[in-house]
Amino acid sequence: MRTPEHGAIRPCGTRQQIARQIAGVLGHPVDIELVAIEVTALDPRDLRATVTVPEVPGGTYRVLVTSVGPLDAYGAQITVTAG
Fold first, then answer.
1. What percent helix, strand, coil does the chain show, rounded to 5?
2. Cβ distance 20 to 1 under 8 Å?
3. Mind listing the pLDDT tens digit for each residue in 10-57?
4. Half-sphere CA count of 62, side-chain side, radius 13 A
5. Contacts for 57 with CB less than 8 Å, ≥ 6 apart
6. Which residues contact 61 (CB under 8 A, 6 or more apart)?
7. pTM beyond 0.90
8. Cβ–Cβ contacts within 10 Å for residue 34, how many?
């Protein structure tokens, strides 16, 4: 994961970019998750996605990128604050 970086603070309701980098072949669509947010079936060639931070209790979270293959990756811890 390239962004969000460790310790980033993301207010609820804001749009934030998620960026990743891939080693190897880009094949399967990917999904991005953060508690109540889920972006599914992204083109694997799109290494960035802009998502809206969901209304969740303030706290520490991680972004998860998943795929059919062995591609799961967690981002650094971020802090979500009340919007």
1. 0, 45, 55
2. yes
3. 888 888 887 777 666 666 677 776 654 667 777 878 888 888 888 888
4. 10
5. none
6. 34, 35, 77, 78, 79, 80
7. no
8. 22
